[in-house]
Structure to design on (167 residues):
C-alpha cells in the first residue's frame, strides 16, 4: 500500500480482443509465474491515446495490424506478488474489440512473447488457470455477450500530443 505522502495511481493498460471465425487471438508469454496466456495487451505509453496503445501493443505482441472497432469496456483488477518485491498493482484496463490483419511477414514478436495462439471460447475457458489475469476471460465473455461501446466515448484532447505549458 502507498504511504500517506504518495498518490495512488493504477497502472493503465490497453487490450485488443480479436476474434475471427469463432476463435480468439491470445499470446503466450513468459512471466515470473511461468508461461501464461493473455490478450494482446500492455501499458499505455505517454503521449498515445488508448486506441493507439491497443494498436501498438497488438502489433508488438502478435505481428498483426489491429483496427479497433469498439470499446469493449473498462476493467479493474488487482495483482499481488508476495515475494521479496511485495508487488501490489491495480490495473485499469481499456479493452477494444476489432479486427486484425494477417501476420506481418518477418515480424519479431515482443520480448517475452513466446507465440500467438487462436483459441475457441471453450479452449479459453478450459485454460483459465493459465491466464495472466482474470480479465483475459472476462473481456472475451463480454465480447461474446455483444458488449460494444462507441470509440468516441474516449475523448483525446490535442494537449495529449502537444502539452499546454502552464506557469
Amino acid at each position: 500500500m502507498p504511504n500517506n505522502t504518495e498518490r495512488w495511481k493504477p497502472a493503465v493498460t490497453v487490450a485488443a480482443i480479436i476474434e475471427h471465425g469463432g476463435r480468439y487471438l491470445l499470446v503466450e508469454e513468459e512471466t515470473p509465474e511461468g508461461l501464461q496466456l493473455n490478450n494482446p495487451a500492455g501499458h499505455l505509453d505517454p503521449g498515445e491515446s488508448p486506441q493507439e496503445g491497443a494498436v501498438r501493443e497488438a502489433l508488438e505482441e502478435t505481428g498483426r495490424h489491429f483496427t479497433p472497432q469498439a470499446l469493449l469496456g473498462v476493467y479493474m483488477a488487482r495483482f499481488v506478488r508476495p515475494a521479496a518485491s511485495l508487488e501490489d498493482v491495480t490495473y485499469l484496463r481499456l479493452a477494444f474489440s476489432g479486427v486484425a490483419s494477417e501476420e506481418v511477414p518477418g515480424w519479431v514478436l515482443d520480448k517475452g512473447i513466446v507465440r500467438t495462439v487462436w483459441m475457441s471460447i471453450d479452449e479459453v475457458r478450459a485454460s483459465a488457470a493459465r491466464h495472466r489475469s482474470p480479465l483475459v476471460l472476462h473481456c472475451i465473455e463480454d465480447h461474446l455477450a455483444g458488449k460494444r461501446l462507441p470509440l468516441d466515448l474516449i475523448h483525446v484532447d490535442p494537449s495529449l500530443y502537444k502539452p499546454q505549458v502552464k506557469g
Summary: Helices lie at 50-62, 121-126, 135-144. Residues 128 and 137 are 7 Å apart (CA to CA).
